[in-house]
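Why do we care about 3D structure at all? Because function follows from shape, and shape follows, mostly, from sequence. That is the central idea of this module. The next example makes it concrete: a single protein chain, its amino acid sequence, and then its structure expressed as tokens.
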Amino acid sequence: MAKGYWIVRVDVQDAEAYKAYAAANGAAFARFGGRFLVRGGAFEAVTGTARARNVIVEFPSYETALACWNSDLYQSARALQKGGAEADIVVIEGYDGPQPQVSEPAPTPGAASE
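And the structure:
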């Protein structure tokens, strides 16, 4: 079964409200088996627009990721930061299929591309 993920991009506008939310959301994530894969950290927006903070939370399944989002426990945590942050959040099903295979040698570092 494919895992589920929350992909979150955030601009924090009220640091105190966001801290309260971050302190409370862990209970919901723990209850639904969520774990942080990305929580802030250095990044470079190589194309498109970005927000100041990025988070990826992994769940055992897509259904579990949605259940966490819809839970009273998470929505209570979320209410603590109302107006404290502007966010884009996607709940998405992971991919559990075949992966790319090497079919030719990798380019030599520093070689000009064609």
